[in-house]
Amino acid sequence: MPLAVNSLEANTLYIAFALLPFAFGVAWALAARRVRAGRSRRDAWLHSLAEVGAVVGSVPLLFLGLTSREGANAVQLVPLVDLADLAGASPRRIVEQLAGNLFVFAAAGFFLPVRFRIGLGAVALGGAAAAVTLEALQFALLTGRVVSVDDALMNALGAVLAALASRPWWRRTRESAAPEPRAAVLRSAGRDWRVTSFEVSRGTDRAARC
């Protein structure tokens, strides 16, 4: 059975990589539509790639997480037990378990803060909620997997670590989206003086105190 599972995982990854040109085409179409609507080219591409990347990076791993394996479901609700068991496991199993659980929601954690104005707290809560939902689906669909609290913790941790990795991009996006101070034109003695709204309000306050 492990050979079949590995074959399924390999084929899923092959298909995902083969569909990357199509995903890029969707991102290009979304970006072009946003540019025509008046958005800056940089923000249009950044938001479009973030939307497509969150979907393309999550769907294959969610599919693998919900595929059935032989045997009955098992439940492990004691934290850190499964992680401690990995200490005596083979290197291949350690890599599969840790990398698999960390990457399930990594794409969503990486791209969603770039697209939406959310912080690490929201990513952590969203990752935890999504991880619990995934574990519940594995149990309800009788996939023959171990429903583990450690898996959910690693899923949420992967989303947070990915969000930290993309932080330079989502912080830059928010700074570029911040509204600039509105300028007002004051006419005095035949000359135009361009000042910001803050300066206008400060001048109004001074005049009121005089």
Automatic annotation (TrEMBL):
Residues 73-165 form the VanZ-like domain. InterPro entries: VanZ-like. The keyword Transmembrane applies. The chain crosses the membrane at residues 12-32, 44-66, 94-112, 119-140, 152-170. Keywords: Membrane, Transmembrane, Transmembrane helix. This is VanZ-like domain-containing protein. It comes from Glycomyces endophyticus.
